[in-house]
Structure prediction request, 672 residues.
Amino acid sequence: MGQPVEARAMIPQRTPAWARGASLLQRQGALIALVGVALFGVLRYGETFYSSYNFWETLRNNSYFALIALGMAFVIMTGGIDLSVGSVVALSAVVAARLSPEGIYLATGAAMAAGLAVGVTNGLVIARFSVQPFIVTLASLLGARGMALLVAGNATVPVDFEHGFIDIGQREIGPVPLPVVLVVIAYALGSLLLNFTRFGRHVLALGGNEEAARLAGLPIGRILISVYAMSGMLAGLAGAILAGLAFSGPPTAALGWELSAIAAVVVGGTLLTGGMGSVGATLAGVLLIGLIFNVLNFERGRGVFNLTVYWENVIRGVFLLLVVLFQHRLTRALRLRS
Amino acid sequence: MARTKPTGQAPRLAPLSFPAVRGTARQHGALAALLLLVLFNALFTARFLTVTSMRVNLTQVATITIVAVGMTFVIATGGIDLSVGSLMAISGAIAPKIFLSDRFPFDAPVLGVALAIVVPVLAAGLGGSFNGVMVAWFRIQPIIATLVLFLAGRGIAQVITGGALVSFREPSFQYLGMGRPLGIPFQVILMVVIVAIAAWVLRSTIFGRYVLATGDNEPAAWLAGVPVRRVKLVVYTVSGLLAGLAGLISIAINSSSDANQDGQLMELDAIAAVAVGGTPLTGGQASIVGTLIGALIIQLLRYTLLSHGVSDAAARVVTAVAIVLAVLLQRRER
Prediction:
């Protein structure tokens, strides 16, 4: 889904084959690993693994991670971070559940609007007062969670089944679940935005060197507000889908999802220093983590090992560690060359 | 923010930061806010000026402050430590395994309790050292490096306890959270001692200067002979050790250890306390007393709102706005 873009890589130059290989591995490693794990699954478990049920359910259950990771990727490309997305998912799930009797469009729209409002607030404070993104979004992590509890009245809000809201999580178009369709649309738009628009270039330029971007006259404030708004809106959509899948709006849901999303973005090969990144690789990162847990479930089903669900966190952490160390090696090898 | 080895340019020597001097204006702002909060409560909150309410507030603030002191050191070097909550859960999960087990062949309850304090704290310190190695030697960004243990650490704690809540009654161990020598909660005494030592270390020792120099301009500090890597290793280790201690205090208060909940969101509370206390997240400047004030402000603000009938949910929103305002105002003062 589009080549990874890097501000520096615009100048054509000759590179040795191994360096190109290392660079490819660093950017597309997640995709390569994804194909590897999928092949392993197909060969080992056969039809139960590539059955359309397992395929679409795995995608459906990773759809909200995919959405928040997309927004996070854009924020990280500008050199920022958005810690508020987990709370925003909870807030918008509650909003969607509250408005579910009004139907799918209004409830989903309101959920996205709630996310957008938090995102724009983040962006405004970061851009106008140049407070660090970490602190601002940390505060809105607390604030949005509080709002979620306020709107929900401290209890899980049930979803109305009568007026079609649950379609947002449950509906299928052909064999494809609606959340998966939404993810595909979001990533297609994201990829277009990053690769083929001026805005995409600006995002990378800003993350690559803020001072240079400022001197070049880029509208720094508008770019920042836009990426945080986007991140908030996507988290809002994720919240609506969560409500549709869980049949409720739990104000305490999605705790710590912001960090899982950051992990997925990093696994996808986007560096936290900003200035580079790829929309497609981010999706590969999300799917890779999702697929690894899918495979582990199959192994557990076969009785190969008897690990409790608590090992999931350990595995997630160790996996992130391996990826980070691997990337460290690759980037250093590449840097030594230049 | 990971600065790599200094390149060809001439070394630029960083001016030494004197936290005592530079910090005053910012600290005074935070102190004024704290005094205002105390004054407001003294006037308008019933039963605020009682021993019980003081004790409640100080007990609540002790664990956050202890963790936030370690966080202040880490942030002073330009880093961040997201793993503290998970390290609290690990130490909280290990301790009951030790004092509840009957595997000690000799009849020595004192030794059992001593081990139940030392081993978990060391385990958490080991986690901190891991963070330090990742940041200093592998040059991985602190957010990512500590994110590893944030994820894996809670999992390890859950695996240790099997995810179950462990309840216990062990008065000698629980002295950590329940003891009241001279009527003062024991953890408050611990907190004061830790704050005092940390403030002294940061202000008056060579190590303190190294910490600030590292955070202010790492290449310059490195060229000036500061053992940058070892400094980072030490601050992350200290942060881990203090998180381990805080984890023990928190299970001692609760009389139970719950790996799913212990230390949850502690990293954020601690970072907020540091930021409100006037330590910039960019590193190079820090104030331990400021962090204590920051933690007290957040706790008292919450207490004030809750005791005036504001709901918990609304109190969170107000706290969020207050954190941003605090950081914003401190920027203006510079």
